[in-house]
Structures are given as C-alpha cells and as structure tokens.
Design brief:
This protein is α/β, with parallel strands linked by helices and about 260 residues long. It has 9 helices and 10 strands. Strands 6-7-8-3-9-10 form a 6-stranded mixed beta sheet, with helices on both faces. The chain has a 4-stranded antiparallel beta sheet with strand order 2-1-4-5, covered by helices on one side.
Amino acid sequence: MAYLEVKNIYKRFGKTEVLKGIDFSMNKGQVVSIIGSSGSGKTTLLRCLNFLEIADAGTFSVNNKVLFDAENQKALTDAQVRENRLHFGLVFQNFNLFPQYSVLENICLAPKLQAKERADYKANAKQINAEIEAKAYKLIDDVGLSAKCNAYPCELSGGQQQRVAIARALALDPEILFFDEPTSALDPELTGEILKVIKELAQRDMTMVIVTHEMQFAAEVSDQVIFMDGGVIVEQGTPDEVFVHPKSERTKAFLSRYNNA
C-alpha cells in the first residue's frame, strides 16, 4: 500500500488551469523528484499538498489516512487543516527565515507554539521547552551549523540559511518532506552543500518529494522521477527510465534542451 497517494488533483487560478488531474503514489522512505519547465505546475502541486493552496478537485492521503478530499474540504475546521498540514514539512526556494530570530529561535518557534496547545503545557512548560531546544540543537548539528546557533539570518550565507530552513522543517517531525527548488536561490558553489544534506536525509530513509532543476542530483538521489508539463504528468518512472530511456517525445525534448543549455 502506498504511503503517499495523490489522485486526480486539479487546480485553477481564474481561467488558467494549472493542474489537470495529477496522480502519483510513493512508498515510505522513497525519494520522488519532480522535474519540468517553469510554469508546468510543479510548485503549485507542492503547495496544494501542503495546504498552502486548496485544490479544486481530487484527494490525497498519507499512510491510508485521507488528508484532503475536495468534496468535503469546506467541512474541515481551521484546526483540522493545521493538523493535516503537520504531516508535511516544506523547504521553500527563498529560505523564509524570520530575520529577527536567531538560528535556534527560528527552529524552536513552531514547536513551541504547537506545544502551547498541549493540555500539560502550563504545568510542564520549562521541561517541554528544554526538550524542544535540545532537539533543535541536534538538528542544527545534523546540518553542520553547530557554531551558528545564536547567529541571525543576515549573518549567514545563502547555503547556511537553507540548511537552517531544512532543520526548521524537520523540527515538527514531518512524515514527508517537500523541497521546492531548494538550490534555485543559491550560487552554484553553495548548491553542493544543500544537495549533500538532502542526500544524507535520503540515506536515513526520509520520505521526500523534491521539485528540482538539478538533473544529475535527481538521477542520483531519486527512486522515482516525475516529468510534468502543462499541468499534467507526462512521464514517470525510475531515473534510468526517465533520464536514459524516456518514452515521451516531450520528455526527450525537455532533457535535450536542458542537457544542451
């Protein structure tokens, strides 16, 4: 049984249909990379799965639990939507760190806000916050930034900011981690450090969906690759099937232009 199952997702902005019936599934611990030209619907798909946009039709589920069904979405309360969103972590293109908070504070903010909703928070606030901070320190160490715990975003390189963003996304223990072009805002020399962190997560069997323009990286890290164009999935398969033996002429044309760029 698939861990993440996405069925028939449609999304329209005004008269423009951006997603036109997206279907895919993946198993726990897999890495799926989504490739395609700008405007093909890749980012919109991630935003719909993370409830930053609401799809017009379709369903998706995690571990057999339906998180979204367009037909009954309006019946969900804001609290239920927030709870469903916790199944996912999202790393944005442009880091989106809070400039007024240190590295440690950026990573602790969401878990501490979430903890305040616990029934036992008032009686155990000191212990709970200490546990959150201990976990944050470990995550900071995991992404190689132990010396930067008290630094502010303006004091970090782009690559360091993106590593903080990855640690922040992991702080709430998401079941699936989404990356939206995680290296697009970085200089080429900083790209490698982010790809290294993502590869390490893959080696730890983190379930991930990665929208990327790094074809070689996608080929190396992915279990499955999805090629999108014009709001539909044109082709999907293993990296070998998509990159080495593509069946669709549209896929071949895209990869040819990319390889010759």
